[in-house]
Amino acid sequence: MQKIYEPENLMEGELLQAMLASEGVEAHLTGRHLLGGIGELPVFGLLGISVDNDQAERARALITAYNGASPFSGDEPDVFPDVLVC
Prior knowledge:
Helix content is about 30%, strand content about 15%. It is of the alpha+beta class. The protein has one domain: Hypothetical protein rpa1041 (Alpha-Beta Plaits). Strands 1-3-2 form a 3-stranded antiparallel β-sheet, with helices on one face. It is globular and about 45 Å long. It starts with a strand and ends in an 18-residue tail after the last helix. About 15% of the residues are buried. The mean pLDDT is about 80.
């Protein structure tokens, strides 16, 4: 196992873990239970995504592609119901 990525927060970590699982890569999110100790533990570097050594290169490529993706133009709806526009 090797740590391949440090997510900014728990939500990003769980999102990336699920994305990797959907691509057939088994990933482990380490440090999620340490977040309750913030204040006594350092704030950065607690979370990590780890995968098996043989899947590390593919997992890094998938995360890089995911982070670099942008939405297709024209996919946004013209009107967002129940949204207050200021």
